[in-house]
From TrEMBL:
<dbReference type="InterPro" id="IPR039420">
    <property type="entry name" value="WalR-like"/>
</dbReference>
<dbReference type="Pfam" id="PF00196">
    <property type="entry name" value="GerE"/>
</dbReference>
<protein>
    <submittedName>
        <fullName>DNA-binding response regulator</fullName>
    </submittedName>
</protein>
<dbReference type="GO" id="GO:0003677">
    <property type="term" value="F:DNA binding"/>
</dbReference>
<feature type="domain" description="HTH luxR-type">
    <location>
        <begin position="149"/>
        <end position="214"/>
    </location>
</feature>
<keyword id="KW-0597">Phosphoprotein</keyword>
<keyword id="KW-0804">Transcription</keyword>
<dbReference type="InterPro" id="IPR001789">
    <property type="entry name" value="Sig_transdc_resp-reg_receiver"/>
</dbReference>
<dbReference type="Pfam" id="PF00072">
    <property type="entry name" value="Response_reg"/>
</dbReference>
<keyword id="KW-0238">DNA-binding</keyword>
<feature type="domain" description="Response regulatory">
    <location>
        <begin position="7"/>
        <end position="123"/>
    </location>
</feature>
<dbReference type="InterPro" id="IPR011006">
    <property type="entry name" value="CheY-like_superfamily"/>
</dbReference>
<feature type="modified residue" description="4-aspartylphosphate">
    <location>
        <position position="58"/>
    </location>
</feature>
<dbReference type="InterPro" id="IPR016032">
    <property type="entry name" value="Sig_transdc_resp-reg_C-effctor"/>
</dbReference>
<dbReference type="InterPro" id="IPR058245">
    <property type="entry name" value="NreC/VraR/RcsB-like_REC"/>
</dbReference>
<keyword id="KW-0805">Transcription regulation</keyword>
<dbReference type="InterPro" id="IPR000792">
    <property type="entry name" value="Tscrpt_reg_LuxR_C"/>
</dbReference>
Length: 218
């Protein structure tokens, strides 16, 4: 990272918000906006080209969603810190972003001080969440069934466990695909793998097993 400036790339498909945020950040000493991107694909390409210190990444974007774009940016350039800035308050989106490699997560509506603090913190190697998001993370891990969530079904992959939790919450494959930014085919394949690993015959039996283990909290 530059000793003087934190170089930032902004990725958001809404031009008014994107340009407004660019102007806001450009006015802050120590931060330089080196570029913007309007799609997930463009975010990945511009990150590779510009090598910023930070990418501020929206989740819902055309061509490639922000979760997958984050995964590709971090895989290509591990030194780049990604701060997700999104409207989504879904726990599944938060944890998907974390697994993709994001080191910051803020909700749109965060004020200038919160955004600046997150950019500076992540640029210095920290992980940071906005106040509302941090509370959700704390509540998740402090919940009465958090331990059983984390220790249940060790034979499942993290993605399979996420999908099983949503199955237990009564979500359809289409809803799960939308929530986790996956194709319905990927969800179907994972659900089949879950049934095989748990030795259950159908969705109803999987739901019973999952809820007994504490998954599927609403």
């Amino acid at each position: 990272m530059s000793d003087e400036l934190i170089r930032v790339l902004l990725a958001d498909d809404h031009p008014v918000y994107r340009e407004g945020l660019a102007m806001l950040l450009a006015s802050i000493p120590g931060i330089e906006v080196v570029g913007t991107a309007a799609t997930g694909v463009e975010a990945v390409e511009r990150a590779a080209e510009l090598q910023p210190d930070i990418v501020v990444m929206d989740v819902t974007m055309p061509e490639l969603d922000g979760i997958e774009a984050t995964r590709r940016v971090v895989a290509d350039s591990p030194h780049i810190g990604v701060v997700v800035l999104t409207m989504s308050e879904e726990d599944s989106t938060l944890f998907a972003a974390m697994r993709a490699g994001a080191r910051g997560y803020l909700l749109k509506g965060a004020n200038q001080a919160e955004i600046t603090r997150a950019i500076v913190a992540v640029a210095h190697g920290e992980a940071i969440f906005g106040p509302a998001v941090a509370l959700r993370v704390a509540e998740f891990f402090a919940g009465p069934s958090a331990a059983s969530d984390l220790g249940a079904f060790p034979q499942l992959t993290p993605r399979e466990r996420d999908i099983l939790s949503l199955v237990a919450a009564g979500r359809s494959n289409a809803q799960i695909a939308s929530t986790l930014f996956l194709s319905q085919k990927t969800v179907r394949n994972n659900v089949s793998n879950i049934f095989a690993k748990l030795h259950v015959a159908d969705r109803a039996e999987a739901i019973v097993r999952a809820r007994e283990a504490g998954l599927g909290r609403t």
